[in-house]
Every structure is written in structure tokens, then in C-alpha cells.
Amino acid sequence: MAEVSSEAKTNAERLFLERLSAIIIEPIELERVLSALYDWREVLVQRLDKERGTLSCEYFTEQHPVFKGLAQLNQNSADFSTRWAAQWQERHAAQDLARYFDDKLMFLLYGKFNAGKSSFCNFIAERFLSQGHEVEFFTVQQGEITPISGPFKEGSTETTAEIQGLILSGRMVLLDTPGLHSLTEENAALTRQFLESADGMLWLSSSTSPGQVQELDTLAQELRRRKPLLPVITRSDFVDEDIIDNQIVKIVCNKTTENRDLQEEDLRERAIEKLQKLGVDPEVLKPAVSISVYAAKAQTEGVENSAELEAFKKALSGAGFYRFYEALSELLPSMQLYKQRKPAELLLHHLEEDVREDVLAFYRHCEHLQSEIQEEIQAATKGSERWAKLVWQQCAADIPELLDEQIKAEGSVMALSAALTNKLNKQLIKQAERVFPAYQPVLYKRAVEVEQIIQVLARFSQVSLDNYEAIYKRLDQEVQSISVEIAKELADLAADILNELQEKLAQVQKLVHNSIQDLEQIRLQLVNT
Fold it and tell me: How far apart, in Å, are the Cα atoms of 87 and each of 80, 84, 95, 193, 302?
């Protein structure tokens, strides 16, 4: 950066103008980082597409919670590519605006609609014009830059219905926007759309209520984007009365240094507390400065508009603008670096705020499914125990009738075994449909063979009144044993299937985790470029 003049050393405004004039935005090599960012998203889509085919289970009906969870997970994965392409397209307006001003440092002003952004812009424009610097006013309409005549309209109600801005000395741009907490959602949406087009942020809030919590939520996002940000407390003044020529006159006075210090420290403390809750490093927050456009104007009224006059220097310093210019000067180097990285930063914003957030939600969905599956394993074990008990109770209740039928007939052990086997297999299916309505029949279609019952009754030649009790007792025990055995088989099979699903979900989670780590490495590479 060029040497500053001797005059500028005692004038923060002149010093800032000289430093701004010395800024040169030179392109840097970003092709490798851009390629890495595009490749990261493409590889992520390919890997998720590959894993999607493994996240299914043929043993569940469409009503099963795990089936529904897997279906939703697969649908989300299938939609990612189209969704991300659309989200990247939505950011084109900001990209186009950034390219339009690619040789200028761009500040975005944001805050509540009554933060005094328009009057602030007008005053800065006056200061640049007074020292022979060119000032251009413009608006952004449907993504197009339209020159307009200044100054901007000021008022106590919302006067900015569109993005409007200043080009200062051909080097710096101030974008004055509808408030993020605007009276109209359309205006708020317009501001959010252009947030990432800026290289630095000026967060303006009135001294009547500086640094409102709802504004800090958006502040956190901008700080995550690693943009230089300077909080500015506007309207740091009060109205007093004085007697001039025997008349009571109201005058605009700057708030005291002590009062300003208290407000600035209060804002910083609340901002740090909020940022910590949001997981943002509080060190990125710049110290706030307090200014008063009205006091600066009132105290220079009637004075020749020259920055070198002591009256002007005293008025600007008292109104906080020297501190503001000093703070702004300190931001210029980091803004310049951010500007040079802008093409890659815009893509990184999309990947971090759209893609990463989607895959993190995808990860949490997998985590939730893991919990559901673990609960299902326990439910399947309990359900199988209930299933075994119901089958045994129903079949045991039918045994006396089957015995009576055979005693009246030929007393055939073979016929008794066949009849009981038929009853047992029907109850296995019937009670399974009752206990496991959301499982496919293929999971529990384990049939009992008649030979198993015949073998149990091998020592009985026929059914008679003499061996009635012995046969009943033996069949009752066998039905209970068979029911418990088959139920355990089902519980084990269900556990194996569900455990396999958990392993597949864990593999997908590992994929997401590793991909996010890879993106962080690319980000660090960009920051160090």
C-alpha cells in the first residue's frame, strides 16, 4: 500500500480515502480450488446414489415405520442433485452483482428499517463529493444496475423498497437495502437475496435499541461466511436546549463518550453471548463504533465544506466518523483478500449453507432411523414371545377336541398328528399377522412338518381313553416348545436383518462425515490462498 500523506496522518477521513485509492484488486489463481469444490459436490452425489440402492428391506410392509423412514431417506437422496442445482441457480443474482463490481470493494448495509441506512449513505456521499471524489447512485431492479440521481430518500418510515447503492470514488460500493426485519416480507427477501454479494458488512442499528437479538441471527450467518463485519450504532445523539439571542433553541448533541462506550460494550457482550450459542467464534466480531449523522450535519451547518477546516474536523470526530473511518481502514486488507477469493467463496457458501445442511439433515435422519431400528429389535423380541404364547394357547385349547375326534374314529396317531400340524401352521400365520402386521409374510412363513409331531407320539400306537392324558400332556409340551423355537428364529432373523440395516446406515453416515471433513479441508485451502 502506498505511503500516506502528512496531512492524512492527522485526518482519519483523508487517511481512509488515500488507503482506499491505493487498493488494487488483482485476480488470483482459483481454478484448482473451484475445481475441487465442484468435484466435491459431484462425488458426493455419486456416492449417495450408490448407497441409495442398499437402503431397503423386503421384509417390511409400507406401513412399517422403518420402511417409511428408509423410503423418505432414499427420496431425499434422489432429490439432492435437482435441489442443489436449483439452489445454486437462485444465487446467480448475487453472483452477477458481484461480477459487475469485481474491481470494487462492496459493503452491504443491513439492519432494521429504522437504522438510518439511507441517511448514512447520503452523508458518506456528501463527504466524498466534498473532497473531489466521484459518487454514483444506482438501484438494482430484477438483477440490473440502473443509475439514478441522488440523494436517497430519507424518512422515519421504511423508504427503501429496493436495493440501492453508491459507487464511491470508483473503488467502494455501499449497498443500502430493505431491512432484514422489514415491514414487508418482499423487502426482507430482497435483502437476504443479496447478502452474499458483498465483501464486507456494516451492521447498522439505532442507539435507541442497538443490536437487537433477532438481527444477530443473521449476523451469525455472515460471520460464518468469514466476511469482515463492523457493527455501527447510528443516531448516537440527543436533543438539548440552549439560549441563543434570548431564545430557547433546540440543538443536536453527540452522546457522551461514556454513554457510547457503555452502549458499544453492551452490544458486544450480547453479540458474543449470542454468537457462542450459535457456535460462532466471537473473535470475528469487530468492536462497534457509534456515529451521529445529524450531529455532524448540525455542527457543520454554515461552515465552508472543507475537510481541512478545524470546525469540520472537530464535528466529524465528535460525531464518531473519525473512529468509523479508522475502523473501516482496518477492514480494507481483509476485504481485499475476500474480494480476490469471491468466485470460490460464493460457491463455498452454496456448498456449506445448502449442500452441507442437507446432508447433515440426512445424517440426522440416519441417526433417527438407527434409534428406531434399535427399538424395533427389542419390539421384535417381545413380539415373538407374545406370538409364541398366543400360538401355544390357541393350539393347546384345540388338542382335547382333536383327541376326542380320533377316539370316536379309528384312534389314528397319524391322523391326530396331521390335524394338529395343520392347526399349528394356521395359528402361526394367524397370530403372526396379529402381532406383526407391518412385516411381510415371508419373514414368518416357517411351517411345521407333520413328522415332527409323529416323532413325538412315536411310543403311542393309537389314541385311546387309556393314553388320553399322556398324549395331551406330550402334545401340549411339544406345541409350546415348537412355538418358542419358531418365535426365537423369527426374533433372531429380524435382529439380523435390522442389524444389517444399521450397518448400512452407519456406512452412509461415515460417508457424509468424511465428505464434510473433505469440504473443510478445501475451505482451509481457499482461506490460505
Answer: 10, 5, 13, 12, 53
H helical segments located in 57-202:
65-90, 92-100, 117-130, 185-193
Grouping H, G, I as helix, E, B as strand and the rest as coil, residue 256 is coil
**Both 156 and 277 in a single domain?**
yes
Whole-number Å distance between alpha carbons of 370 and 376: 10
| Cβ atoms 482, 452 nearer than 8 A | yes
Helix (H, G, I), strand (E, B) or coil at 7: coil
Amino acid at site 289? V
Residues 178 and 252 in one domain: yes
- β-pair type (172-176, 200-206): unpaired
The rounded distance, in Å, linking the Cα atoms of 471 and 486 is 22
Closest to 151 in 3D by CA, of 19, 303, 331, 297 = 297
The b/e string for 92-120 (b: 16+ C-beta within 10 A; e otherwise) is: ebbbebbebbeebbbbbbbbbbbbbbbbb
Q: How many CA atoms lie within 13 A of 527 on its CB side?
A: 10
By residue range, what is the domain housing residue 439? 379-505
The per-residue pLDDT for range 334-366, each reduced to its tens digit, is 889 888 888 898 899 999 999 999 999 999 999
Mark whether 322 and 218 lie in a shared domain. yes
The residues that bridge with 203 in the sheet, in sequence order, are 110, 231
> Tens of pLDDT along 253-284?
999 999 999 999 999 998 888 888 888 888 77
DSSP tag of 2? P
pTM of the full structure: 0.77
What Å distances lie between residue 454 and 451, 457, 465, CA to CA?
5, 5, 19
The answer to whether residue 51 sits within a structural domain is: no
Pair (324, 405) in one structural domain: no
The verdict on 395 and 500 lying in the same domain is: yes
Residues 262 and 322 in one domain: yes
Other beta carbons within 10 angstroms of residue 493's beta carbon come to: 16
Extract the C-alpha cell encoding 127: 463527504
In a domain, 50, yes or no: no
Q: How many structural domains is the chain composed of?
A: 2
pLDDT at res. 148: 93
